[in-house]
Write a structure and sequence with these properties.
411 residues; 5-stranded parallel β-sheet; 11 helices
Length: 411
């Protein structure tokens, strides 16, 4: 968007040239320069921004529209994209949605900029997945501060992910053999007993052995599934398009997830209360089922038989809010803060099965579906997980007034 009122950016300030525009190793040697992609249909402004960022030590590349920006982003893989909102053709909001849906670019830092007060709503951009917002005209100092802060945040996120991966590797050898071999030994033990003593066994004994094989098989299947799912979600290229699920499908998938958890907690069927309201959402069938299965399994696992477990899925405004509550042992504030993959609390005191991946998987699914999750827990009283997922909104009909379609797009 052209903005002739923008003043020229001060691009020769030596005070600004010391910004952290590159990564360094432990010895302090420069590893590589950060790259910033600028997308704006105002060519003079783009040239000024490019010169200003290069003066600060960044590698900058300019694109004059979203189509060109898409091509450049896939060839250059920038660390940060600085994008105007109101441009001819594809605007910044649509461009951001496509970036966040693309596995190769989804984690790129993204900053909106605009000089049009109609689009000057930072929260709208944040809701679409933008990391920051600049209102034109802005100074080079404001630009440098914004870019530096966003790239620092990117470094912190990458560092946290590296810590998580190292934690997974460090704890695998402790839990993996037990969780794989214990159910496998159960399957082999029951099968060998049937093979050797089948003719001498009574029908109830045969059924008991078969049920033991089924239970052990389900436990092994869940362990392998969750482990592979976690590895897939640690890979930044694992994103896939998200389909739309009808209201009826959502209810069926929620019930399927609960049944899968009850297969491992058959004695808890009478403890469960379900309140489900049909609501369409965007999400994968496997992901929604797995989300509910893990939340339900967590509630059953950490509460005693005979105590209530409540699962509710209700429409609240533009969201489907799913809550799972139990009256179990709860978690402390410190435990809530340190929840992560392969982490189970008080395992020596409370015998628990599984790798501790359930809540990690839930968080990954919620994040992929654009939702939010809150946890309220009181030690000795129970825990409530509240997950809000965006309900699917039908696109505006083709015959709708232009203003209505533009209003929907701005949101």
């Amino acid at each position: 968007m052209k903005n002739t009122s923008d003043p020229k950016l001060p691009i020769h300030s030596s005070r600004l040239s010391t910004g952290a525009a590159s990564t360094t190793d432990q010895s302090g040697a420069v590893d590589r320069m950060y790259s910033v992609q600028i997308i704006d249909d105002d060519a003079p402004l783009g040239a000024a921004l490019t010169a200003g960022l290069e003066a600060c030590g960044y590698r900058a590349v300019f694109s004059s529209n979203a189509a060109e920006g898409w091509t450049v982003a896939h060839t250059q893989h920038p660390d940060l994209i600085l994008c105007d909102i109101n441009m001819p053709g594809k605007n910044g909001h649509r461009f951001l949605e496509e970036i966040r849906a693309d596995p190769a670019l989804a984690n790129c830092q993204f900053v909106f900029m605009t000089g049009n007060t109609v689009f000057a709503h930072p929260r709208a951009g944040m809701n679409l997945g933008a990391d920051d917002f600049l209102l034109k005209p802005f100074t080079l100092e404001a630009l440098r501060s914004c870019v530096s802060a966003r790239l620092r945040r990117r470094e912190i996120s990458q560092h946290q992910e590296a810590i998580l991966v190292n934690e997974l590797r460090a704890t695998l050898h402790k839990s993996m053999p037990h969780e794989f071999f214990t159910p496998l030994n159960g399957i082999l033990g029951y099968a060998e007993m049937l093979d050797q003593d089948f003719t001498a066994m009574t029908p109830p004994e045969v059924r008991e052995s078969l049920q033991g094989i089924i239970q052990s098989g389900r436990r092994l299947h869940r362990t392998l599934r969750n482990y592979l799912f976690t590895l897939d979600r640690l890979n930044p290229d694992s994103g896939t398009p998200v389909p739309v699920l009808s209201s009826a499908s959502v209810v069926q998938l929620l019930e399927r997830g609960v049944r899968a958890a009850l297969d491992r907690h058959a004695s808890r069927r009478a403890d469960l209360t379900l309140e489900l309201t049909p609501t369409p959402i965007s999400g994968g069938p496997q992901e929604l089922t797995l989300l509910i299965e893990e939340l339900s399994d967590n509630a059953f696992s950490f509460s005693k038989p005979g105590t209530p477990v409540r699962l509710s899925a209700q429409r609240h405004g533009a969201d489907l809010q799913v809550t799972v509550s139990d009256c179990g042992r709860g978690m402390t504030a410190h435990q809530l803060k340190t929840l992560g993959a392969f982490r189970q609390f008080e395992r020596p005191t409370f015998e628990q099965q599984g790798l501790g991946l359930g809540l990690f998987i839930v968080r990954q699914i919620v994040r992929r579906l654009g939702g939010r999750m809150n946890i309220h827990s009181v030690p000795g009283q129970g825990t409530t997980f509240a997950v809000s997922l965006p309900a699917y909104a039908e696109p505006a009909p083709k015959g709708a007034p232009l203003a209505a379609r533009e209003g929907r797009e701005e949101r």
